[in-house]
Amino acid sequence: MSRNGKQRAQRIDRQYHTLADRFIHRKRWFGVIGFFAAIAYSSWLFSSRGALQVSTGDLSRAHFAWNKSGCENCHLPFLPIRKEAFGGDVPETISQNNNTCNSTCHSVTDHFSKQTNPNVLASESCSSCHREHLGSNRSLVDVADHDCVRCHLKLEKVAVVTNKQFATVSNFTDSNGHPVFPFEKLEKDPGTIKFSHTQHLRAGQPKKPGDRTEKHIGNIPEKYRKQYQDRLGSDDLIQLRCSDCHERDVALPGYEELESFSPVLNDGGMSVRSNSHMLYKPIEYEKHCVACHDFGGVEHGLDRVQTQASIDSLMPVRLLESLKRRGLESNPTDVEIEGHSIRLNSLLTDKAEGCIKCHSSAEETSSSIVQASNIASRWLNDATFTHGAHLMVSCKDCHSEAYVQHDRSIDSEMDASQIMIPGITSCRACHIQDAQERSSAFANNKHVVSADCVDCHRYHVDPPKLLNPSKMQSASLEQVRALLSVGKSP
Question: What's the whole-model pTM score?
Answer without folding.
Answer: 0.71
